[in-house]
């Protein structure tokens, strides 16, 4: 019984730290900023677009090697979307170049995928 409680606590701690890292991730912060200031995203998702806190992310992010390949959900006041980011960091300027930045609306939206990259 106590082992199950320990495993649940461990899972919640790890998933919580993953989300905390995601929200402070420079690539994710840049993507959220761009979406919050895009008129099409505001119409589709609404105001206050942020990372969905109840879902886990897929992919990986490595600041030292300069590789990012992430999928995560965002939520606004109107609806949700799946964001897919893939890119590399240029070492000289510490700038991230995204080869993929797609926003796929969820929950029955008739809108197709938006691509920024």
Question: Biggest sheet, in brief?
Answer: 6 strands, antiparallel
So what's the overall shape? globular
Radius of gyration: 16 Å
Instruction: Compute the average pLDDT.
Output: 80
The helix/strand order is HHHEEEEEE
In DSSP terms, counting alpha (H) and pi (I) runs of 4 or more, how many helices? 3
Helix-strand category: alpha+beta
Q: How much of the residues is beta strand, in percent?
A: 25-35%
Low-confidence stretches: 14-19
Distance between the termini: 49 Å
Tell me roughly what share of residues is in helical segments.
Answer: 25-40%
The overall strand count is: 6
Structure, explained:
The chain has helices at 2-24, 26-36, 39-45, and strands at 50-51, 58-62, 67-75, 80-90, 95-105, 114-115. It is an alpha+beta fold and 117 residues long. Strands 1, 2, 3, 4, 5 and 6 form a 6-stranded antiparallel β-sheet that branches. A hairpin with an 8-residue loop joins β5 (95-105) and β6. The longest helix has 23 residues, at 2-24. It is globular. The protein starts with a helix and ends with a strand.
């Amino acid at each position: 019984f106590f082992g199950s409680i320990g495993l649940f606590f461990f899972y919640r701690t790890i998933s919580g730290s993953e989300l905390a890292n995601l929200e402070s991730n420079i690539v994710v912060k840049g993507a959220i900023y761009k979406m919050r200031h895009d008129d099409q995203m505001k119409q589709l998702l609404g105001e206050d677009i942020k990372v969905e806190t109840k879902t886990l992310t897929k992919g990986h992010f490595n600041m030292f090697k300069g590789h990012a390949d992430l999928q995560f959900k965002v939520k606004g006041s109107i609806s949700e979307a799946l964001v897919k980011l893939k890119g590399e960091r240029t070492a000289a300027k510490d700038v991230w170049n995204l080869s993929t930045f797609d926003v796929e609306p969820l929950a029955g939206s008739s809108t197709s995928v938006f691509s920024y990259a």
